[in-house]
Amino acid sequence: MTQPIYTMVRNADWRAAEAAGAYAGSADDRRDGFLHFSTAAQLRASAAKHRAGERDLLLVEVDPAALGQALRWEPAGSRPGLFPHLYGSLPLSAVRAVTPLPLGADGAHVFPPGID
């Protein structure tokens, strides 16, 4: 089984994606020309950098094998390693799970078990 990749989506945006049958990305994704994803090891740092203190988020777990050649692994600025970027919409058929991503008492997001 391929290791999943993740994106953090605002609840209202995800509901619109469900109605449309695909997720076209956030305003930031559309500006950059691709959907931003993270591996489990990259996710906490991505949340702290890009979604700090943001409520009403969902954690979307995706099967990267279902995305084909539209998925590329690329550097992300000064951050180490390669990050998964999807050049196209996310088909709902590639989604393994969608779970709430609440904030803890310390203001940081509380991730499900298995996220490093």
UniProtKB/TrEMBL annotation:
SUPFAM superfamilies to which the protein is assigned, alphabetical: ADP-ribosylation
Domain of life of the source: Bacteria
Pfam family, one: DUF952
Identification of the protein by name: DUF952 domain-containing protein
Lineage: Bacteria, Pseudomonadati, Pseudomonadota, Alphaproteobacteria, Acetobacterales
